[in-house]
Amino acid sequence: MTSIYVTKRSGETEPFNINKIHRVLEWACNDLVGVSVSEIEIRANVQLYDAMQSTSIHDLLIKSSSELITEATPNYQTVAARLINYKLKKIVYGDKDPWPLKEIIDHNIEAGVYDSDILNMYSDAELDYINEHILDHSRDDDFTYAGMEQMRSKYLVQNRSDGTIYETPQVLYIMIAMTLFGKYNGRRMKYVREFYDAISQFYISLPTPIMAGVRTPTRQFSSCVVLETNDSLDSINATSTSIVKYISKKAGLGINAGKLRAVGSHIGDGSVVHTGLIPFLKLFQASVKSCSQGGVRGGAATVYLPVWHYEFEDLVVLKNNRGTDETRVRNMDYAFQFNKLMYERLLEGGKITFFSPDDVPGLYDAFFEDQDKFQELYEKYERAYSIRKKSLPALEVFSQFLQERKETGRIYLQNVDHANTHGAFIEKQAPIHQSNLCCEIDLPSHGLESYDDTNKGEISLCTLSAINWGLINDPSQFEHYCDLAVRALDALLDYQNYPVIAAQRSTMNRRPLGVGIINLAYFLAKRGLKYNDEALETVDEYAEAWSYYLIKASADLAKEQGCCYKNMETKYGHGILPIDTYKKEVDELIKHKERMPWKQLREQLKKKGIRNSTLMAIMPAETSAQISNSTNGIEPPRALVSYKQSKDGVMAQVVPNMWNLKNKYDLLWDHDGPEGYLKIMAVLQKYVDQGISVNTSYNPAQYEDNKIPMSVMLKDLITFYKYGGKQLYYFNTNDMAGEEEDCESCKL
Known about the structure:
The chain is α/β, with parallel strands linked by helices. The strands form 5 sheets. Strands 4, 5, 6, 9, 10, 13, 14, 15, 18 and 19 form a 10-stranded mixed sheet that branches. A 3-stranded mixed sheet has the order 2-1-3.
């Protein structure tokens, strides 16, 4: 019989040895309940042939293990993760034992994939100390299959053309900690250790730009970019150029096009008629899709538009599958902006009147800055016979909006009055004109008149992270992790580069951060709580502490390093807190309590100011949740074992501690509509200075003829507004419309 040979990673060949497979699988299955070596081997069904690659055999074992992950056999996720980890170490180090940290850094700087500045920050002695006393490679064993696969495919520094990988997960984490705290002279080792422990043990999660970029020569780590265009060709062109710059740097975009005049408007002396928004939206779409985000994901953007824009009827259908390519711009998402007057018209059976912004002086600015002034001007322009306008019943406008939102899953909403009155900024000094791609960021912006605008142009960036609520057992624990998150992100603002001057100026002036939440569903399940009224007291208590410690961390940092330049354009600079500006209707849900020493914090803010103009933003957290073996952000899980589609295939993820809590989890499609979830979001929003990426989810099976009634959607929309909601993100249904994809353009 002819012997079969296997080709090793080195290119050498050796006779096939079945015992090697047994040994690897026995190691991967060690100490795990409900897994079987033979089951993996049978499923792998390795078809041997001469010169077969050893890596191909290993990949089959990983695939086989991952396919065995079910509710009954969840521990196969650990087997698959261990096998990936084993493979990674072979690829990176040629062996199961990692190199010393200094050797890894030197090798990767020479390869051009690490930033050489790291060697200017740390001595050889410090690197040796970190390697011996802080870095813990055994934590790579804490990943599940989905987490390790996402880490391998998205975050580890690699050459995507030839498959070379330059680091393993713990090296990634320690390098991020060392980079962000490299300037903390005297306290450097303390913060490197503490931050490394926090991120590598999943107490703090970080977004894609930081995970994939910090330690590399790339120096743009802000997840979210907020920019707007003025109503001029120069501004439109400057906006388009800025889009390309930031799309190529891994950022998700929020684009405000609401100032653009409507089709048929006069230009100059009237000899030219305006083509309207759609041609310019096509230009922005081309810019968004012109390049991938650092090779990690495709470009993505959400366009923001006022609901009273003259072209509303054409704009609200831009994403649907009906109509021609000339009348549709499908590769971006859209958000329509509402305020109190629009809801009043709905409830009173009134009409909404549509205008071209250039025909109604002052109306657009008042929409964000002064609601009383907006109503006065709006009603004035409705009465003016000389102004071009048209009207529709408010019920028809809201219904059309909700119908398109339901059908596409990707038509979003912003309540601009709440974004401003309950935001971090003084409305008339720094109004919020829009949100971002994923609907959680509320930062000022101002249109550019040129790409290098050094005057009024302002592009806002937000740098993200999140606290893992699932690992917090007492509100006092937030103090440590909130302080670390704020310090790390604030340091990053000075470390990164800024491709556009308007973004650098805005960031240095305002230093905005957005710290969110992951693993809320696990947090509730651990306590036997569901997404209903019974959870409100607990959520309120923890949200208050989380918010307090984030604000305090920035206030303490202001005492230490100085407040942001635009401190007095923030409410914080005047001692005004989120708990002072929330919609008081929330008190109907949960009685207002102040458990934290807010009075002292107010006084500190008045005296020393705030370092960061914003501190909170509750973002989606698809990838970061997988990395951390957490439930997705604030969302209820769809199932105990979820299967998520990505560009690398389908990944199975098991909810945390499923063995003990499988009957405690409150699954999404068991909900009787989104009301309970929306109430929890209302309580969270009370303490948040920016927004929350809030989804609405419906199971059609719960309704007659499997159709979600318009009356139900309207009721939930009004509930969301009543309790102070700012932005609505996806519309999810159990028929998969609006199902989330693994394109976390600004997601964690």
